[in-house]
Amino acid sequence: MQAKRLQQIDFLRGIAILLVLLRHKKLFSFTVTMGWIGVDLFFVLSGFLVSGLLFKEYLRFGNIKPGLFLIRRGYKIYPIYYLTYFIYVIPFLIKGNLELDRVVADLFFFQNYYNGWGYTYAASWSLAVEEHFYFGLALLFWMLINSKYKDKLMANLGAILIGLMMVVLAVRIITVWSNAASSVHNITSSHLRIDSLLMGVLVSYFYYFKLDRLKSIFFQNTRLLFCLSFCLLSFTPFIKIEHSLFIQTFGFVFLYLAFAVILVYFLLKEEIMSVLNSTFTKPVVDLISKIGYCSYAVYVIHTAVNYCFKIITKFYFGWEIHPVVGFFATSILSVLLGIFITNKIEAYFLKMRDKRFPSRVQKF
Fold first, then answer.
1. With contact defined as beta carbons under 8 Å apart, do 54 and 141 qualify?
2. CA-CA distances (angstroms) from residue 191 to 101, 107, 129, 142, 173?
């Protein structure tokens, strides 16, 4: 039986993909500057959602099946990625400058180490980070659950996760200062960015194992936490990520702390959808949630849409499109294609997945 989706989480995913669209197609200068934080919001949400699958499996059965978990993740990620990847290869083939070693890195998800950004599809570096996270998370949980100290380790998993995040931060500080914030690998390497995903896991751990404590901490300090969250996000419209020592070290920490607060609020606030509907109107909330539901497909297709739009309008017709028109045109087309890909292609493979490798807990 499929568990009910949390629309508020889809709403947050919708916000995340809209930020990514703002990053990759200029609307205003500040939206390009801050749009990259959409990826960090995705990281926190992914850490929460994906670890939640393993936590629920553990709570129900006392164990997990990491192989099944990874296979089901593969059905979710790989089909759309590989099918759309060929679209990104076409311009390189036309120009005759396709580098096969870089393509291999893209196809096997180590482009963030080999190329920095993705090769044919620059934004695919974040997919590599998430892939490495899935394997690392499954291995970590399997080791903890099969340890003779399982009960003690699971009881202290929160401290373990915080320790891992501190290690990542320390390594990031050392790496970034040695590179003087000049290397793209400071931004894209999995071992330097995985703490955002681990923060999502930490929220998930408290949500599934220590919910009363989470509620107590949050509701006793709601205003303080929201003020803190606002302050932590306040730098994002003003500082560019590419050469910022601050962002590439502590800035990422600021983001995942702020997004964790927002995520917890969306999880714990009663009648959160009523609050959102009264704030933004129900049609707007439903639209953003729908976009969030299709966010993965929108993510993998949107830069191809941007490229084609640029070619058609500038090189074939010689038009200089106003940024507002260009942003909304490409965003609408990306969303429509994302909805189609999700409902037709992704749905086909997920149906196949559920038939061949049924979930022990729920479909996701």
1. yes
2. 22, 20, 8, 20, 12
**Start-end of H helices in 146-281:** 150-155, 157-179, 185-188, 190-209, 211-220, 222-233, 245-246, 252-268, 272-280
* Rounded Cα distance, 307 and 209, in Å: 46
CA distances from 234 to 34, 222, 231, 249, 251 (A): 10, 18, 5, 16, 11
pTM of the entire structure?
0.96
Burial class (CB in 10 A: 0-12, 13-18, 19+), 209: middle
Among residues 140, 85, 142, 139, the alpha carbon closest in space to that of 109 is found at 85
pLDDT at 296: 98
CA-wise closest residue to 104 among 126, 121, 117, 119: 119
Residue keyed to tokens 């606030």: 269
- In the chain, where are the structural domains located? 7-356
* Residue 224 scores a pLDDT above 80: yes
